[in-house]
Design brief:
33% of the residues lie in helices and 27% in strands. The chain is α/β, with parallel strands linked by helices. The protein has an eight-stranded mixed beta sheet with strand order 3-2-1-4-7-15-16-17. Strands 9-12-8-13 form a four-stranded antiparallel beta sheet. The model has no long low-confidence stretch (mean pLDDT 93). The structure holds ribulose-5-phosphate. Ribulose-5-phosphate binds next to α2 and α5.
């Protein structure tokens, strides 16, 4: 990759680069999915190749598994790992309590299973992902293909009765066909605008027949590493609030970014 990096790419990169410092030798690490998580995987790959870091990586999607292997990370399944020291993943939104919306990349099911099976979950995100109240980003809900339209009708009806449905919901598409997750399911995107009680909504959605999982991550994230377009990073911890504000050396990181992206 050459030429000018967009501020958002720089923000994602510095968040990923800082979060890679949390990865220690011997750890079993959950590897997230998405463009920010892809930077993390590349940064960890660099540490494996250049510094001799030895970790086992548990990817949250086939895309991440492929990238992790490409950059030299030893990939194992969650069942082989059983429990993880740390998971680092991106998010579509995070709020002040570090609750999240995830699933923009369609990997929410594996992401939630992996994050929940970890001692610690760290989110990496550009500052644009921070919101006061979750819900502006359409909430992804993974549903089984059988009877998906009936499930959608049930979901919409329930949301209307709870007074949370904004516009409607739509089946996520991949060109002319429904998007299919790694687990062979479909995704409904719910347009809610503002989720008053995310915990309650998550529980209600997961009780519906046909719903496999939803993209609300409640009480799962321990810390967020927030990246800014000018190279600043902020680490916000669930218990202690902001614990670090720093600026990554952009001369160094710019080179690394360019090297990694090539
Ligand atoms: O939940 C996800 C994938 O299912 C991603 O973490 C989320 O969509 C953020 O992606 P990006 O880092 O590309 O903005």
């Amino acid at each position: 990759m050459s030429g000018e990096l967009s501020p958002i790419d720089k923000a994602k990169f510095v968040a990923a680069k800082r979060a890679a410092d949390y990865v220690e030798d011997g750890m079993r690490v959950g590897l997230g999915t998405g463009s920010t998580a892809a930077w993390l995987v590349r940064c960890i790959g660099e540490m494996v190749r250049n510094d001799g870091l030895r970790i086992k990586g548990v990817p949250t999607s086939t895309r991440t598994a492929e990238l992790a292997r490409d950059v030299g990370i030893d990939v194992i399944s969650l069942d082989e790992a059983k429990w993880l020291d740390l998971t680092i993943d991106g998010a579509d939104e995070f709020d002040g309590d570090l609750n999240l919306i995830k699933g923009g990349g369609g990997a929410l099911l594996q992401e939630k299973i992996v994050a929940t099976a970890s001692d610690q979950m760290i989110v990496i995100a550009d500052v644009g992902k921070e919101v006061e109240t979750l819900g502006a980003f359409p909430l992804p809900v993974e549903v089984i293909p059988f009877g998906w339209q009936t499930t959608q009708a049930l979901v919409e009806e329930t949301l209307i009765s709870m007074d949370v449905l904004g516009r409607s919901s739509s089946l996520r598409m991949n060109g002319a066909r429904p998007f299919v997750t790694d687990e062979g399911n479909h995704i409904l995107d719910l347009y809610l605008n503002r989720i008053g009680n995310a915990r309650q909504l998550s529980l209600v959605l997961n009780q519906m027949p046909g719903v496999v999982e939803n993209g609300l991550f409640i009480d799962i994230c321990d810390a967020v590493v927030i990246g800014y377009g000018d190279g600043r990073v902020e680490v916000r911890d669930i218990n202690q609030g902001t614990i670090e504000q720093d600026r990554l050396d952009f001369v160094e990181t710019d080179n690394l970014f360019t090297d990694l992206a090539d």
